[in-house]
Amino acid sequence: MNQVFFHDQLIRFSHCDPAAIVYFPRFFDLAHAAMEDWLADGLGFPLPELITERRIGTPTVSIHCDFVKPLRIGDTLRFELRVTKIGNASVDLQYVGLKDGIEHLRIVQTIVFMDLDAARAAPIPEDIRPAIEAFLVETNEAREK
């Protein structure tokens, strides 16, 4: 337990607005790329296989971002991805976005495992749950309660 998934991404021209800073909606695309790599490399369950072979999706049902400092073209964004809660069908993810060890943003996202054929939430598959649990961390909020 308490594993952290690290994902480095170069900030490119296509991520930026005319001021050469990351256009805020692009952070959600960057976070999604980190989540896809976490599924594949961290859990061993690539999203394309989940979707096409197992007919399981992982749609976002809630997402929130706090922006602390801007990132610019040429910067390297390091996401630290943690699992903060696991439900029956849902997983809460926390992304801390760092540049040179300094926090620039924080994203909190809830994904739900979905039966794509039935178009409804489905329990997290039993073979995937233990891999997710390895990334479960105790949050500050949980410690304060």
Description:
The protein is of the alpha+beta class. It has one domain (5-144): Hotdog Thioesterase (Thiol Ester Dehydrase, Chain A, Roll), CATH 3.10.129. It contains 4 helices and 8 strands; from the N terminus they run βααβββββββαα. The chain has helices at 26-43, 47-52, 129-133, 140-144, and strands at 5-10, 56-57, 60-67, 76-86, 90-99, 102-112, 114-115, 120-121. It has a 5-stranded antiparallel beta sheet, with helices on one face. A hairpin with a 3-residue loop joins β4 and β5 (90-99). The protein is globular and about 45 Å long.
Defining key terms:
145 residues, alpha+beta, Thiol Ester Dehydrase, Chain A, five-stranded antiparallel sheet, three-stranded antiparallel sheet, 4 helices, 8 strands, globular
